[in-house]
Structures are given as structure tokens and as C-alpha cells.
Amino acid sequence: MKTGFHKITIIVDNLAGAGLSAEHGLSLWIETGDRRILLDTGQGGALSPNARQLGVDLAETSALVLSHGHYDHTGGVSRVLRTAPDAELFCHPSAVIPRYGSNGGQPKPLGMQCESMWALDCLPARRMRWVQTGREIFPNIGLTGYIPRDSGYEDTGGAFFLDPELSRPDPIDDDLALWIRTPEGLVVCVGCCHSGLINTLNHALFQSGASRLRAVIGGFHLLNADDVRIEKTVEALQALSPALIVPCHCTGRRAVQALEDAFGAGVVAGVSGMSFEF
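The structure corresponding to this sequence follows.
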């Protein structure tokens, strides 16, 4: 692949293209120069069959990036690390802590699966990269690390907790995003945006030094957002003026519709199998 060319393929999403498996989760395959980056792995069941169907060789993975430690983004970690024995793994240290959601007032485990945790425990130190602050992992490709919560109207997007008693709210501090500099502006790939979509984009722009946003792709976690948050998110996105918005996974139909109403053809609702070239 020629230098300066970037291709992003949705391998796993809640919705699937023809011949592919759908799954509540997300995984993006990023091809840039001679690098192959996998952002998240879904729950694990759809990753390998969808990759084969799409002609993606997971053995070529240069870097596995985890946007955060929820089960629907980390289920295929052990498989990828076995398949790609030279791949480095990038994630925030808090990605490995236990976490819970509420199911009718009862705790529901949301954290990384045991097999994935074991894979991280067994990973040689030379392949493990803990990310707390922003850093470039390859030329013109970086990770945000922790994202400040500055917008005022954005939250984690749901009832998330650090304990099974559901008494300690989980700020999901491990949430991070990946950005790519291009001559036409910044391309930002997100997992769930538990830090808030606008917080995430503003921080990625600041860190990268980019003056404009070209595209954002991934889960925006607006499925539980009220009308006020969706309206303010759309207004802030209009100010950033991206050429392409690809909502996936946890964005929610109401938010997707609001984005389509505001941006028209600039919004492409994501499904597994879609590819985008920059």
C-alpha cells in the first residue's frame, strides 16, 4: 500500500453486510503504509469469520488497540495475539479492571473476558504498551490516552459501575481513540466514545495539531442520549465540519437520524464489510 494512503474496514458491528456476521460490538481494521492496526475485537465470535470473508489477514496485525475494556470490544484479544505473534497491544491500564452495568437493578458484568485477561497477563513486556496520555504509535497515527470531560453535556452514556453493588459509578477513564493525520484533515476512529464524541474529537484535534476534522468513524454511544444532548452534539459537529461521519455500534437510531438530517450524504451508517479510503 502506498505511503500516505489509509483504508479503514469495519470488520465487526451490530449490523452486517451480505455474507457477514452481526454482533453487538465493534472492530476496525486500519491499513496505512506497511502497518496494519486492529482497533477492538468485538465480542470475539464474529471477528475471525468476518475477517476471512473480507480478505483481512489478522496475522498481519502490527498493533492491537483497545479503545476500552468492555467485553464487546475485547472478546477476540487472545485469538489476535496468538495469530499475530509480533503484534504490540496498546490500551489504558484501567482497561483490565472489573466493571458492571445494571440489568433491572441487578449487576451485569461488562468487563474484559477471562480469556482476554489471561492473554494480557501472559503477554511479554516487550509487546505490552500501556497508554495513559496521548502518544504517536506510528508516524502520523496516534492515541489520545485519557480524554478530558470538558463539554458539560456529555457523559459515559449509561449506568456503569465499578462494583457489583452498583454503588460506585464507573467514569470509564480507559476510553481512548485513535487518530490519523491526512493532508485533508484528521481521521478519528472511536470505540464507544464514553468520554463523549465532542470531547473525543476536540482532544484528538488538540493532540495531533490538526486544524480540521476530515472524518470520524465508530461507536458514538448516543443510544441513551436525550434530545438535548443529541442536539448539542450535532451543533458541535457542524462547527467541526467533518466531510464524513460513520456512526456504528452504540450510536443509536435516533442519533443516526439526527446526524443524517443535519449532514445528509456526509453521514454513512456503518455496517460490517464497509471500507473507507483516505
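The chain has seven helices and 16 strands.
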